[in-house]
């Protein structure tokens, strides 16, 4: 049987301006196996997948040089719709890949297009839905599905024609924690035998998946391909070996590691359940920021360093009800945002978190009261940075609100902010031309340039890779540390553990709990009710670490290498690990 | 399904197009008024559309129709002088204005009937089956339709996202200046183009356009569908004939008279 994918010397330029994306990439995916593709944002992972399904160069402009064959066909020659008979594609954004109004129609659509026999269609659609645990969604409207449900339907629609190869582009990246776990757990279960073209014949399905959130994949794919910033192959081989051998390089690229590999790379004596690992983590957490855990209130200074009294809240909401289209979406919320305190707002998709934030910012029709200290503007960054763009250049974008606010020394302020967020080099570029991570920094810059008293951030790490997430977290925490009151809506519980002071849980449009981070995240009943699936390290903290005095904020950095000089190293790192760390300290 | 929902969508669309075009040729107020009443009756009885929904659907057509009436009354002073409250207006302008206003209501209700009683997937499947439109075309329209249903929500988000950039904004008010709306429209457009690209990829990767296709849920086209069309057109013809006998029917010649 032909290999699912063969690529040699694959070099790809995309767009009308021929941006070089992939450089001399070679790998093979044998039939019936799975491949994980990892690399930093913008390294060409998505482009690689688009080449495999023929979209580049057929639908989107690009030049593909070198050898590439997918299930024995050349994806440059075979038209995309015809290639689709043997290759199924699932894209990132759940909302943009369902074409029809009803789930069943969506599944039948793929079969109809291939001229499949009408008689067996319903049964095949059923089988595909069953494979992804979504039979109950068959007659639902596609626009009413949650992200996790929509993504499962997209998987079923790709599976329904029994393709030999399934190509998945970050299928979990835009889902809430519970949704990501549902979809991620399915990925490697899709590898294996599928009914072949002739009755009784069995073909072997292969999977190629790009994914950041490796802990959410139930089992990791057989092989891993690592791409670097320049779109070259950094490593390729069996997953366990590649991740272990290149863990430092991967961390340097800003990639996330699965927790067990990350633990090993950091020098842990065993897997998470091992008592020695408990000791090691506890010892290592001591001396990290935030430990020992205490509900510290950061000393408060107002914006621009003016001291304020700690009791003066920056924003107070009482009995706040937010209406959308004549309906109350958020009910009766009491919330205080205090200077220097970062409040994380968590809860299931569609629970009203974003609407609450917009209500606090005065953008929706509200009843009840929201009072702010009049001298400070409430700023907000939205989930999609492109929605907030108003100007033609990055510099004008940052200067926009400064000009409207009539602040002193506007030019200086703008240049300082551009420098702080690493945007000086792009100051004259069009905001629409920036990468995802740069656009996020720009949206933060448009708020921080005002030295805001209150900053509200709606999923600011949405779709970012590990390094970009850390950079965003640092900006938000930094703002809180100079006295800004920060409200942060997020699904990333590790981020909450790392930067938040308090957590508000929003379910069904109501704040059902509000308290210290440690207290909220360790409440099992509350977490289940709010669909807060704790990542493994946070779970360890709730079960073990907490009782042994580990601060929840230390979790964010406990596996970081940069702090290894603090003397908190475990005693049992082997010689191989010692070398790895020597390398790491050389590069960091 | 109601009788109007059951009616073959291609036939229904064709009838609506014929009636709408024919209405352009009539310039007296009575004929469109009769047609409007008949259409509304069909919408309520055969389409089983709730009265409230039908009433709300009138709003844009009433607004447009009223403006047509006013414009014609003001700009056509000719004919017999008719006292209208404190004013005196020309009969020519009044008759023509009323005709255009009622024609707007009639054509408006025809489109409302089509929209409220036709399921998009059935319409597109039927257009592919019976009007031989290419599948790549009909399904692109369906995907665009799905994109459209989400646009109002995105529009609101964009307006909020841009409004928050103004530090002097007032609580609970989104800017309505032409400039603010234009900037929001641009952001909406950029987002729509990016989404359209992803949807195009999704359609192709589902194999749309790979060759001959089958249809799992064909839309039936039976004798009854054609009979219904004949009955509706005959009814419209009867209204015109009655107008000719009754003497109130006028054609487009009157516009230049």
Instruction: Please report the number of helical segments of chain A.
Output: 21
Order of helices and strands of chain B: HHHHEEHHHHHH
Q: What structural class do the secondary elements of chain A suggest?
A: alpha/beta
Radius of gyration of chain B: 23 Å
Name the overall outline of chain B.
flat
Mean pLDDT across the residues of chain B is: 90
Domains of chain B (count):
2
Spans of chain B of 5+ residues with little confidence (pLDDT < 50)?
none
Kindly provide the radius of gyration of chain A, computed on alpha-carbon positions and rounded to a whole number of angstroms. 25 Å
Terminal Cα span of chain A: 46 Å
Strand order across the largest sheet of chain B? 1-2
Runs of chain A with pLDDT <50, length 5+? 290-310, 563-588
Strand content of chain B: under 5%
Work out the largest interface and the residue count of each chain: A-B, 69 and 52 residues
- Describe the largest sheet of chain A: 7 strands, mixed
Total beta strands of chain A = 19
For the termini of chain B, the CA-CA separation is 48 Å
- Mean pLDDT of chain A, to the nearest integer, reads 84
Beta-strand residue fraction of chain A:
15-25%
Keywords (chain B): Cell membrane, Membrane, Transmembrane, Transmembrane helix
Transmembrane segments (chain B): 13-46, 53-74, 94-116, 226-248
Subcellular location (chain B): Membrane
InterPro entries (chain B): ABC/ECF_trnsptr_transmembrane, ECF_transporter_component
